[in-house]
DNA primase large subunit PriL (Halospeciosus flavus), 366 residues
Amino acid sequence: MNRRHARYPFLQSARQAVQEAGVDLATIVAEDDAVVERALERVTKAVTEREVGEPARDPRTELLSYPVARVLVSLVDENILVRRYAEAEATTAAERFTADSDDDEQFASVGNADAVTREDLLREFDLADHVRSAGDGFRVDVATYLLLASSVRGEEWRLVNRPLADGEVPVDGYELDTLVQQAIEERIAEGLPLNVPDAIASELGEEVGEVKTVLSELDLTTDIDTVVPDLFPPCMKNLLERVRRGDHLPHHSRFAITAFLANIGLSTDEIVDIYEVNPGFGEEMTRYQTDHIQGESSPTEYTAPACATMKSYGDCVNPDSLCENISHPLSYYEVKLEDADEEELEDWREEGDSERSEESPEASGE
Ligand code: SF4
């Protein structure tokens, strides 16, 4: 286990080094406090700072903290944590390899055994044969580009917004590093959450509790309770619009929008208020249905249908580029909320509040 493995624990060679050292994870979590502490820091910093903190001085501790961190993430078992953690590890790795690549250019004759450059990572992820230098930049095979760029946020990454020549997409160095970062993120998220044996899980109860506290303090898991219709997925915007237009919705569509609104935190009263504009609205039915979905009049709390179900009922309308990377309307909304900055959300909340007070006769003194 060397420093290179410690700095880039997702490399195949790092995984192999851990295997060859015959490390028993159950013993590590039971006996090696330094490793567990660093693993906990990796995960909590991923949540709070979107990076994984300063590496431990001892390469063995640093390297072993990576599999333990993956175990912690798995035990907490929240989608948002898996995403944040993989993103943070990949961001840290990208910072390191860009610094290593710069050093490599500067000290080309000396070499640095701990460094990992862009070229090393292209080989690691079998990308070297699909990327070639071209003038100041690079060209990436279109299939490879699509595979990696489809998960990168931003319209500029969509193929329709890119020049395409001879089956290749031109990118600059920074963009290529972003694609490599994406490959790292995918490898880190691969297999998460893991199935964790009870012997390991029982040793990490306290740390799992700590991660859950950090998550709840940041309110990430309940972020989705913020109601910003501008950020709703196209399918739900469409259904909401149809409700407001007074259209008669078939049962599956009405269930989909009601469950979605309930899942993002609207109360039965608020949903009833929204539906009231619809002439086909029946207050009693809406209350019954909403309470049922929310689990108040039934033992189950229902979740809005996934994209596959929405598609099969014809409720998936105008899917956009983000839709290609999610499988549930709630995930779409979650990603949008996460991408929106706090100021934007504040503006939306204020807009929503003033719209509500204009609509409400009591609030406007009518
Ligand atoms: S893909 Fe999913 S989120 Fe997007 S519009 Fe269709 S159902 Fe909605």
Notes: Residues 233-235, 307, 310, 316, 319, 323, 329, 332 surround iron/sulfur cluster (CB under 6 Å). Residues 103 and 216 are 40 Å apart (CA to CA). The chain has two domains: 3-216, 223-364. The chain has 19 helices and three strands.
